[in-house]
Each structure stands twice: as structure tokens, then as C-alpha cells.
Specification:
alpha+beta, seven-stranded mixed beta sheet, 24% strand
């Protein structure tokens, strides 16, 4: 039996066509004797009805007509599949790139106006697009409709059966939304859309996990959106005005030329798929130039293997190889401020800084990193963790280099910078302890060591330094200071606010610590009417002194924090301050003037 739909020959008695699965006409058995006129007229009417139904449902074969002809290899028939009753106009869309290489293929349905929808992200690098309707020859697509900013392109195709096409309508959030797979049979899937993202004339959202195939969204019998199958993870809903329809036409050849050379995504796809070359520096420079081009799509709309992360991963690999092979200067030249600013990628910023670090000028390298952080990322409200981790690493490498080389003055400066940037980093503090010990400043080393706890990973290192710095007497909270018993005062040297060394005299008769006015100026302490004033008796009589609060005073091994002091110059010893009772009250004090011994024992907190 010959199928009236696809002309396939079928075995006698078959119910469905082997080619298109169309129901075959039932063959009636022979009857003896002539048909009655009534039966003859009924049979004729039935035949006319069948022919009318077939005429309405069977789409004529699309005429193959291309501008240059389509190769025999392209005319291979697509695999037979059961059509959805909703989508009678289906076919294979094939995109060809350079050398007639197929780079994208999908199944699509045509809607009214002879248009089909394709994702823009799939079209970068294309040269020619064809559509092959089921059981028809492929036809070249010559034009489409697209507006800048849209993530979906409409292409114009002669469907051959306008009466069976679905309308395109604007998606309405208030109506139920059903998704139909274009090939798989079965009931539609009801879909909920939450927080859609606007892109041009489309509303975009991550497609549901159960939606893996190409399909269409339908509302009230009209197409309102599309999914394009894996690896596209976004769904698209048409939100343009129905009266306006799709945007203006564009020639296919002009479209492919424009998106492949004038925009970032097409440029990157061409470079990534070219396989690079033999000159890594030239490849890195070519990729960097891509960031000068404007992007067409939001990151979510780009294919995963063409997104910026894939480009940056390739550039990172090239830059690392150049640095390792001693060509860091080329990386510094290529990954300049413009490339980092246009890409806004911390990985490329890190590579640029690491290339500069090869010079071992850590001060210059850290200043470069801080400039990138401040002028490129911070102005956009960004603080990439990768750059913070790199800064910590560079400071530690700098401190280790100083310990190795013995430049302890620079080490103290570098440690102050590092501890300001990373006040809670225990490794930075232990390196500061190492520098202070090497600089023969055990008091400073003890102060740094005591300021933080240390994690188990650093316990062995911390225990070794602790054994160098502390003795049993200190661990018991005791300190002994010797002085000249022949003098009437006890001079000591203490450190104010962790950095300024000040000469003091211990004075158990003074209620407050006193510091000279020159010391207050050196500490940049502001003195004005906002400071409380107290009357102070000196050798020249009673004077008024401003009251200030010092962050800390460290005497040998012990530190008292947040302590009040009076700013006053002692007439007989203007360079000295006084350690008064508000400091000494933190200790049990024993003074043996005959032996010249001052003992301080820390009181329990």
C-alpha cells in the first residue's frame, strides 16, 4: 500500500506508514454484486472528505533552491521522529563555518511569518545557515531579523504550509505557560517563571532542570518563547509588542560578518577554535585585544565553553608559561591597565602582578597591586579575594627575603605595612617576630609574639620562637629593672603606641603618666580645647596640662593599654616623661634604693 502522505510503499495490511507513521487508509473487502446507488454516493462523499482532510494536513514538499546550491552531503535526510501534533512544521537548522565545517545543528519549529528562532550565542563564527524540513531538501537561509541587544535571532524560511503555522505572541506573565518539546511526544510541561532577566526584546530565565530538549513555550495556542537544548542553560520569552513583530530584516552574510569580527564573543570564539599558534606571546596579545571589543551578550547567554572564564583560563595558561620561561616582560607589556580594566578579571590582574614580581622588587610590585585594586576594582565596588590572597603572599615573600638578606630596617617597615594590611594573619606576625629578633630587638619581638594566638599548623614555629623570647621569670609575670642607687630618680625607656621610644622617670608620687609636648607632636596627638585640662605642680609652679589617651605604653616586657597621660614639659628634664601611678598600679612594685633594683610583678587582670 502506498502512503498518500509521503509516498512510502508499505506491506499489505499495515495500519501505519513505515516512513512517517501516518495512519494508512483501511482496505475494505470485496462485495458480491453491484453497489446500491446510495452506497455508491456515500463512498464518493467519504472519499471527498478524506481528500479534503489530507489537503489541509499534508504540507507540500519545500522546493530546494539555494544561491549557490547545496552539496550532496548536506542533503542527508534527518532521522525520522514522531512529530508533536502542535508543531507540524519542523526541521533541522544547520550552521556552517569556515571550510564548510558544521558548527551547530538543532531542531526548530517555524511560526507564522515563516520565521524560526535561534540563539545568538550559537551563531558566532558562522558563514552559512540552512534549514531542512522533514522529508525535504535543505534550503539556504538568506535573511533574518535581529535587533542589537537581543539574545535570539529570527530567521526567515519558506515553510510551504502557512495555514498550519503557529502565531508569535508576546509572553504575558499573568497567563499559564506551557513548554512543548519540538520532537518528543507527550503532554506539555507547565512552567513557572520567577525573576526573569530583561535582554533586548526578551525575558530570560534559567531553564527548568527537567527541560533538556529544544522546545517552545506556548500561551493560548501561540508561540511565546523557546529553549534550545543543551548546552544552552537559558530560556527565552518574546516580550516585544505583538503589533510590531520581530525587528527589521538583515542579510545573513552581513549578519555573520558583523558578529564574527566586530564583537567580543565572535572574536574570542574564532581565536579559541583556531587552536592558537606557535608563538604564545602573539596569542596572548591577540586574546587581550578581544577585550577592546564590545560584548553583545550577557554572560548567562554565552555558551559555557565560550564565556570569559574560558578565555581567561587560556590566557592564564599562556602567561604562566611565559613567566616560567623568563619572558615576564612580555606579560607585563600585554596585560596592561587597559586590558585589566576592560576585562575586569582578577586572574589577569594577578598574572600581571606576578610577572612584575619576577624582578624581586617587592615594594614596586606591591605598589602596582595596590594601584590595580584601588583604581580598577575598588572604583567599581569590587574587592576580589584573589588579589587579597596575592597581596598576603607577596608580603610574606618580601619578609622572608629580608630575613634571608639581613636588611632589617626595611624589614621593620615592610612588617608594619603587612601588619596593617593583614592584622590578623598569624604567619605575618611570626615573620615580624623573626625580623625583630634578627634586629636584636627582643622587646619588640615579644610584643609582636604576644599580640596573637597561633593555629596548630604554625605551632612548631611559634614554640621555637617562644623558647627564644621568654624565660620562666617572665612567664610568671615578673620583671626586674636595675638603676643607679646614687641617683635620686629611676630612669627607664618605654615605647609609646608601639613605635615611639620615650625616656621616663618612675615617679610613685605622680598620679598620672606625663609626656613632653614634643612627644605629643611626634605622635600626631591633637591638642585643643576639646581635651580636658588639669592643674599640675612642677618646679616652676602650677601649670595646666592637656589630658590625652595613649594606645599603649610598653616597659621592657609589659604593656599597659588605653592609658591616660598629661602633656606637660618638666622644667629640669624637658625630654623626660613620668611613669605615674595610673601605669604602676597595673603592677606590684618593689623598690630597693640601696641596691638599685626595681621589681614589677603583673597584677591579675
Amino acid at each position: 500500500m502506498i502512503c498518500p502522505r509521503c509516498q512510502t510503499s508499505n506491506a499489505e495490511g499495515a495500519v501505519y506508514c513505515a516512513g512517517c507513521r501516518w495512519p494508512l487508509p483501511k482496505r475494505t473487502g470485496s462485495r458480491k454484486g453491484p453497489l446500491s446507488p446510495f452506497l455508491f454516493m456515500a463512498a464518493g462523499a467519504a472519499a471527498l472528505i478524506v481528500l479534503y482532510v489530507l489537503y489541509r494536513l499534508i504540507a507540500p514538499a519545500t522546493q530546494a533552491h539555494t544561491a549557490r546550491g547545496v552539496e550532496t552531503a548536506r542533503s542527508k535526510q534527518p532521522a525520522k521522529a514522531t512529530e508533536s501534533s502542535l508543531l507540524p512544521n519542523l526541521g533541522e537548522v544547520i550552521l556552517y563555518g569556515t571550510a564548510d565545517r558544521e558548527i551547530f545543528r538543532t531542531t526548530s519549529a517555524i511560526f507564522r511569518g515563516g520565521r524560526l528562532a535561534l540563539p545568538l550565542a550559537a551563531l558566532f563564527g558562522g558563514k552559512e545557515l540552512t534549514f531542512q524540513a522533514d522529508r525535504s531538501e535543505p534550503v539556504r537561509i538568506m535573511a533574518g531579523t535581529w535587533a542589537l541587544g537581543d539574545p535570539v535571532v529570527f530567521w526567515i524560511v519558506d515553510s510551504g504550509n502557512p495555514s498550519a503555522l503557529l502565531d508569535l505572541a508576546e509572553w504575558r506573565p499573568s497567563l499559564p505557560l506551557d513548554w512543548h518539546a519540538v520532537r518528543a511526544p507527550g503532554p506539555p510541561l507547565r512552567v513557572e517563571v520567577t525573576s526573569p532577566r530583561r535582554a533586548g526584546s526578551f525575558a530570560c530565565f534559567p531553564k527548568p532542570t527537567e527541560v533538556r530538549l529544544p522546545g517552545v513555550f506556548v500561551q493560548e495556542g501561540a508561540v511565546v518563547g523557546w529553549t534550545f537544548g543543551d548546552p544552552f542553560d537559558q530560556a527565552y520569552l518574546w516580550s516585544g509588542a505583538p503589533s510590531a513583530g520581530p525587528p527589521p530584516d538583515i542579510r545573513a552574510d552581513h549578519f555573520f560578518s558583523a558578529i564574527s569580527s566586530n564583537y567580543r564573543e565572535g572574536y574570542f570564539r574564532r581565536l579559541l577554535e583556531s587552536g592558537g599558534g606557535t608563538n604564545p606571546s602573539a596569542e596572548l596579545e591577540a586574546l587581550a585585544k578581544g577585550f577592546r571589543l564590545a560584548p553583545l551578550l550577557a554572560p548567562e547567554d554565552i555558551l559555557p565553553n565560550h564565556r570569559q572564564a574560558a578565555v581567561v583560563a587560556r590566557m592564564d595558561s599562556i602567561a604562566s608559561g611565559l613567566i616560567t620561561s623568563g619572558r615576564a616582560d612580555e606579560v607585563i607589556r600585554i596585560l596592561d591597565d587597559q586590558t585589566i580594566r576592560e576585562s575586569l578579571d582578577p586572574v589577569l590582574a594577578r598574572d600581571a602582578v606576578l610577572a612584575l614580581a619576577e624582578s624581586r622588587d617587592y615594594n614596586k610590585t606591591l605598589r602596582r597591586l595596590e594601584t590595580i585594586e584601588r583604581d580598577i576594582f575598588a572604583v567599581r565596588g569590587l574587592a576580589p579575594a584573589e588579589l587579597g590572597e596575592l597581596k598576603s603572599r607577596l608580603y610574606k615573600d618580601w619578609l622572608r627575603k629580608i630575613i634571608e638578606k639581613g636588611d632589617y630596617y626595611s624589614g621593620a617597615v615592610a612588617f608594619e605595612e603587612a601588619s596593617r594590611a593583614f592584622p590578623d594573619d598569624p604567619e605575618v606576625r611570626l615573620l615580624g617576630v623573626e625580623i625583630a629578633i634578627a634586629d636584636n630587638d627582643p622587646v619588640r619581638a615579644r610584643e609582636i609574639f604576644k599580640s596573637r594566638d597561633y593555629p596548630p599548623a604554625l605551632k612548631e614555629w611559634a614554640d621555637r620562637l617562644k623558647a627564644q623570647l621568654f624565660d620562666p621569670q617572665e612567664e610568671a609575670g615578673e620583671m626586674t629593672i636595675q638603676f643607679d642607687p646614687g641617683k635620686g630618680h629611676i630612669p627607664v625607656e618605654a615605647v609609646i603606641n608601639g613605635s615611639f621610644r620615650q625616656k621616663f622617670m618612675v615617679d610613685t608620687g605622680a598620679s598620672f603618666v606625663c609626656i613632653p609636648s614634643a612627644t605629643a607632636e611626634a605622635l600626631k596627638i591633637k591638642l585643643d580645647d576639646s581635651n580636658p585640662a588639669r592643674a599640675v605642680a612642677t618646679a616652676d609652679g602650677v601649670t595646666f596640662a592637656y589630658e590625652v589617651t595613649l594606645e599603649s605604653i610598653r616597659l621592657d616586657k609589659f604593656t599597659v593599654e588605653n592609658i591616660k597621660a598629661l602633656v606637660v614639659d618638666m622644667p629640669l628634664n624637658p625630654e623626660y616623661g613620668l611613669l605615674g601611678l595610673n601605669f604602676l598600679d597595673a603592677f606590684s612594685v618593689e623598690i630597693d634604693k640601696q641596691k638599685g633594683i626595681l621589681k614589677l610583678k603583673k597584677r591579675p587582670t
